[in-house]
Amino acid sequence: METIAVYGTKGGAGTTVVAAAIAIERSGTLDSPDACAVLGRPDGSPEVALGAGPLVEDRGVVTTTNRPNGKVPAILVTRACYLGLRSALRTDLSGFRGVVLVEEPGRALGVGDVEATLDLPVLAIVPWEPSVARAVDSGLLEARMPVSLRRMVARLKSERI
């Protein structure tokens, strides 16, 4: 079974939502401590099968001891946040294929800054939108996937992730 590893630069970057969106859109299995919560299901297993697609692992915050091993495709989720980027630089980022950037209005840093700082390509951009928060908070992410997340997954698939 194909596996995709999703890491974040810090808590709250959007790692779990990105991992869930990939699992939903690719009819895979989500492996995350918050799998049931993000999918709006009763508490249960941290692994939720949505079909026969890839295993999508929410591996949490990247650190020197929690980082890609190079055996499975890995992506890094971040916002254009100085603190998040600074945190990511404390570890070896060589195992990542690229970055999913959650783009927030009003940030001083942009795509070029993220790519230059991390020395990784931005593979997809997810604009920060209230519709994503509403879908997650209402437990309807699976049923009402916001268009921005669908586009992000399509872009990753075009990059062979």
Shape descriptor reads: globular
- Helix/strand class: alpha/beta
Largest sheet, spatial ordering of strands: 3-2-4-1-5-6-7
Number of DSSP E strands: 7
CATH topology (level 3) name: Rossmann fold
Name of the CATH superfamily: P-loop containing nucleotide triphosphate hydrolases
Describe what you observe in this structure:
- The chain has 161 residues and is of the alpha/beta class.
- It has a single domain (3-158), classed as 3-Layer(aba) Sandwich (Rossmann fold).
- 31% of the residues lie in helices and 23% in strands.
- It contains 6 helices and 7 strands, in the order βαβαβββαβαβαα.
- It has helices spanning 15-25, 35-38, 82-88, 111-118, 130-137, 147-158, and strands at 3-8, 29-31, 47-49, 55-61, 74-79, 98-103, 122-127.
- A 7-stranded mixed beta sheet has the order 3-2-4-1-5-6-7, with helices on both faces.
- The mean pLDDT is 93.
Short description:
By secondary structure, the protein is of the alpha/beta class. Helices cover 31% and strands 23% of the residues. Helix 4 links the parallel strand 6 and strand 7 (122-127).
Name the descriptors.
161 residues; alpha/beta; Rossmann fold; 7-stranded mixed β-sheet; 6 helices; 31% helix
Topology:
Elements: E1 3-8, H1 15-25, E2 29-31, H2 35-38, E3 47-49, E4 55-61, E5 74-79, H3 82-88, E6 98-103, H4 111-118, E7 122-127, H5 130-137, H6 147-158
Parallel strand pairs: 1-4, 1-5, 2-4, 5-6, 6-7
Antiparallel strand pairs: 2-3
